[in-house]
Amino acid sequence: MNRHQLYNKYKRDQEAKKFYNSKAWEICRTNVLIRDYYLCQECLKNKLIVVYDVVHHIKSRLEYPELALTEDNLICLCHACHNRIENAVETKEKGIKLIEMGANPEII
Ligand SMILES: [Zn+2]
Ligand SMILES: [Zn+2]
C-alpha cells in the first residue's frame, strides 16, 4: 500500500468507527436484531438456529450510504454466513470466478 492508499484506508476506518458508534446505528441495529430474533437469517433458511454475530448491510454501506440505516437493507448473520456472503460479493465485483480447490487436480 502506498501513502495515498494508506491515508484513504485510515479515513475510511475513521468514518466507519464514527458510523458504528453513532446513536442512529445503535437504534437501527437494535430494531434489526429484534426483527431477526438475534438469529442468523441464512442459517435459519436452512432450518438451523444460530445466534447472530454481525448485522450485515445487504447493499454495501460504502456504495449505498443512503441505505446504511434502512432496516430492509440489514440482516443478522453468523460469522460463517457473513464471510461467505462478503466473499461472494467481492468475487462478483472483481469478476473473478472461484475455482474450487482440488476439483480438477490434473489441470492444476
Ligand atoms: Zn449463518
Ligand atoms: Zn457485511
Helical percent range?
40-55%
- Based on CA inertia axes, which overall geometry fits? globular
Class of secondary structure makeup: mainly alpha
Work out the helix count: 4
Largest sheet: 2 strands, antiparallel
Q: Biggest sheet, strands in spatial order? A: 1-2
What is bound: which ligands? zinc ion
* Tally of domains: 1
Overall number of strands: 2
Distance between the termini: 30 Å
Please indicate the percent range of residues in DSSP E strands (runs of 2 or more). Answer: 5-15%
What order do the SSEs take from the amino end to the carboxyl end, as H and E? HHHEEH
Low-confidence stretches: 98-105
Overall pLDDT score: 89
CA-atom Rg in angstroms: 17 Å
Protein name: Putative HNH nuclease YajD
Family: Belongs to the HNH nuclease family.
Domain HNH nuclease: 27-83
GO molecular function, one term: endonuclease activity
Keywords:
7% strand, binds zinc ion, single chain, two-stranded antiparallel ribbon, mainly alpha, 2 strands, 108 residues
What does this structure look like?
- There is one protein chain.
- The chain is mainly alpha-helical and 108 residues long.
- Helices cover 48% and strands 7% of the residues.
- The chain has a two-stranded antiparallel ribbon with strand order 1-2.
- The two termini are 30 Å apart.
- It binds zinc ion (2 copies).
- One zinc ion binds next to helix 3 and helix 4.
- Pfam families: HNH.
- Belongs to the HNH nuclease family.
- Residues 27-83 form the HNH nuclease domain.
- GO terms for molecular function: endonuclease activity; hydrolase activity; nucleic acid binding; zinc ion binding.
